[in-house]
Design brief:
2 copies of one chain form a homodimer. In chain A, helix 8 (about 375-390) crosses helix 9 (about 395-415). Helix content of chain A is about 35%, strand content about 20%. With about 575 residues, chain A is of the alpha/beta class. In chain A, strands 13-12-9-8-7-6-15 form a 7-stranded mixed β-sheet, covered by helices on one side. In chain A, strands 5-4-3-2-1-14 form a 6-stranded mixed β-sheet. A 5-stranded parallel β-sheet of chain A has the order 18-17-16-19-20, sandwiched between helices. Chain A contains 17 helices and 20 strands. The longest helix of chain A is centred in the C-terminal third of the chain and has 22 residues, at about 395-415. Chain A folds into 2 domains: about 1-275, Carbon-nitrogen hydrolase (Nitrilase/N-carbamoyl-D-aminoacid amidohydrolase), CATH 3.60.110; about 290-490 and about 540-545, 3-Layer(aba) Sandwich (Rossmann fold).
Amino acid sequence: MRSLRIGLAQINTTVGDLDGNVAKVLEHAARAGELGVDVVAFPELTVTGYPPEDLLLRDHFVLDNKAALKRIVEGTLRQAQGVVLIVGFVDEEGGEIYNAAAVIHDGRLAGVYRKQLLPNYGVFDEMRYFCAGVETPVFEIGGIGVGVNVCEDIWSSEGPTRAQALAGAEVIININGSPFHAGKGRFREEMLAARAADNAVAVCYVNLVGGQDELVFDGGSMVFDERGELIARAAQFEEELLVCDLAVTKEKPERAGDGAPARIVVSGASSSNNKPTVAPRVAEPLGADAEVYAALVTGTRDYWAKAGAETALVGLSGGVDSSLVAAIAVDALGAEHVVGVAMPSRYSSEGSLADAQRLAESLGIELLIVPIEPAHAAFLEMLERPFASGEGDSGAAEENVQARIRGNLLMALSNKFGWWVLTTGNKSEYAVGYCTLYGDMAGGFAVLKDVPKMLVYRLTEHRNAIAGRDLIPRSVIEKPPSAELRPDQLDTDSLPPYDQLDPILEAYVENDRSLEEIVALGHDEALVRRVMAMVDRNEYKRRQAPPGVKITPRAFGRDRRLPLANRYRGY
Amino acid sequence: MRSLRIGLAQINTTVGDLDGNVAKVLEHAARAGELGVDVVAFPELTVTGYPPEDLLLRDHFVLDNKAALKRIVEGTLRQAQGVVLIVGFVDEEGGEIYNAAAVIHDGRLAGVYRKQLLPNYGVFDEMRYFCAGVETPVFEIGGIGVGVNVCEDIWSSEGPTRAQALAGAEVIININGSPFHAGKGRFREEMLAARAADNAVAVCYVNLVGGQDELVFDGGSMVFDERGELIARAAQFEEELLVCDLAVTKEKPERAGDGAPARIVVSGASSSNNKPTVAPRVAEPLGADAEVYAALVTGTRDYWAKAGAETALVGLSGGVDSSLVAAIAVDALGAEHVVGVAMPSRYSSEGSLADAQRLAESLGIELLIVPIEPAHAAFLEMLERPFASGEGDSGAAEENVQARIRGNLLMALSNKFGWWVLTTGNKSEYAVGYCTLYGDMAGGFAVLKDVPKMLVYRLTEHRNAIAGRDLIPRSVIEKPPSAELRPDQLDTDSLPPYDQLDPILEAYVENDRSLEEIVALGHDEALVRRVMAMVDRNEYKRRQAPPGVKITPRAFGRDRRLPLANRYRGY
């Protein structure tokens, strides 16, 4: 029985930080060497970070990426003798670029694999940049046939994995930048197990970890044996070097027929045959709410770290959304890097300010209190004459003025102290436009932008359960939601109850269902029409919204690209 | 000599307005019939409007589009007997969709062509939606071989045009949704002339006209004979039915060899052989500044019309940007649908308010005057305590407060009266972040978002030249640019002079040039570094900017997709 010690280096790269990414690769390669690893694999586009988007259109960026790869190749001589590295980078030939994996050993670039299946749906635009590869080489590492491929490549049962298996690969190493959405992990695991068993190859899946703008990568790297049994799994949302011994039980396969691609010999017989085997780690996947919460914390933490800020400012209304955002911010940045500001108005209830104070105390964060009455009164005075000719309307203008005074205050504090504003709206509100552009939508990052209101409640309870106490006060959770922009206002004055609204939004926004299909799910037709109209009408607001963490199969933003001027009415 | 009377119906479709687009097609087909036209062609994706973006992911939208096409087919029996129609629509087969052209005659769908070359760069995401067609049928219309293809198809010298010519097409009808940028017309014309001459086919190019979100389509449909000579050209930025007689001088070609696709007979011998020939119209293309000005007017007019608003509100500072925006708004919507508002502060010069008043009078628009002092004083009072601990900074926080008070006022008026706000920033300001998020960036449409400051001046002079007077007052044009957010402030306190800034921005933003390359153009290295850093640092602001009209080869927005968290420093 031959064996290979595999290392899956699930690291948190940063887009554009070529030097930082190179250093991280070499550091993990060195650790892998110390652990007797034969081959260590890194996530998709390791060198550039993922996704680099239109940086890829710059010739000098691609050149810099190639120079960075060269530093990794040379660095292995000093830092990772004997270890084979699989590293994602941008390959270039004749003016075309490829999403590629380099196979590196002892100061030598032994081979390159170019991604064949380029995703161009959802959040992905890979055909905007890359040419598709056409070759499926098999690399011989420690006497074992290894096929390397990239992310999407393994999702097709007809793809390169099969070609590589047929050409003699016993092990497939698949490097990924696979964005998180709730529940995706199980789907991935089932697909990978099937791919391994169907092709009788071991499958090593290494995923990126960390946040990048609206995307969060959840790690959860996995190894399956050739029967499709899971033998190792890394944690979600944490950097990890997952190490395991892969026993290749079969004799050297002779599947490769005439015309199969030549095997590229990378390294000699595995040294791990003589090493004591390592106990494979099989981390437990997080529960449904826990993984979403972790994604939000990761997305927030990394946006601050990678875009270059320390402290977050959160407007605290005493409501459940802003309270959850503050809790996430504390978990992401530490209480000393979170500042709350309460901005009560003439319409705020006493309970609201008290709840904001209780929350700040519970989280241990600083709380500023800036009543907005002076500016509110000034605006009403300034607008008295211009508004005099206004017909008796709903009062939305007067309500929004208050939200925008708060937006202005938040941004003033942000500009003065370098704090970045976390906005507090949730997906249900963004969907139906129950939010004020430049008011409560003002800020650098909208943590809950993809979190429907009912899930906001579940995440709040989840966080409190972990704390073992009402970290977010019970009074915050239990009061009826209100924007408090006029006396005795409630969300239900304008919106259906969230337990009716959220399922309709999921059907329309995430699943592109038609009116008839949504009604067939059991919803009231008039209500469905009303909700669809609200969603359509508010596209312009969402276009100017800050980025937020994608946690569903379809988030607002690059995931859902709709025209603003759009006369299509599906209701 | 055989001949074909061609009609190119350069119409202004609306995305999602299937009924409106169907009506417009039938109306133009009827007019074509009255003019003795044999074949009338409409722009790309006529039925759905272009580009429909993620509406294409909805099954019911694609079904509705097919039903709309059916109404056109049936309508030809009543409204356009004897005329062949070429109509863009979304074809569907086996769950895949195609960007297609229907060939329709007397109540019959005679054939379909599916676009082969799908653009997936710049503003285009066609691979996100469409499958590429593979067949190149030749249609026999009035005894003449006609190849139909779609937009990008004709840009490749190896593309379907050549295949169709080799298969016996004597005439190519190419239907387009080709977005405008300054100077693109000449480039298009040269390409089309070459394509016609190289393949010895007449080329009929019909383009969409009108605005759709950030894109403007400039029409300018053209006909070339088989020697590549231009024989007809439609106006830019206007709907038009361009009619001309195409003389096919050669005898029936016998180029099609074995294995060539069968000719699909659509209609019998042309009736136009017996008609008096029509004098072909050759509209003169607009000059460089005139076409940009027309694009801005068209983009603004159509965004208001298609997204559903009547009146525009413009904050008038007395500066050149807001004055030009007001002039464009008046040309787009009429003076009665434009309202100006001057919002002087304690730092506004006397000249500013006087200039705003002079401009409003010159344009004949209503002007509101709302001094911001009450809110300004209130904010300073509210911020006194929170700001007390602030280090001595640049005062940017205090400056932005004023801009955001103005943003709040504009939006309050917008909310109260249903006016939409036109923002006034230009591309130079958006590029370097010399603008306030939620302040002067607040609004529904940023007319000058893609217009560099030096071009703002040229457009102003252009508009005054047309008016034959200083429609935009000379004092507005000649004063040094200032944001007037602190005493005696000038743009040049923070920025290099615009005649130095704009060429650096063009090289970096539009052409992706590196530091070394820009310096090699003759710019000061320290200045280039500073400008590149400002551009990179302000990506987050642009992400929350309103849409604006694309008039350069690369606009901010979908045309330039950069990560927010991005550590790449090319300087």
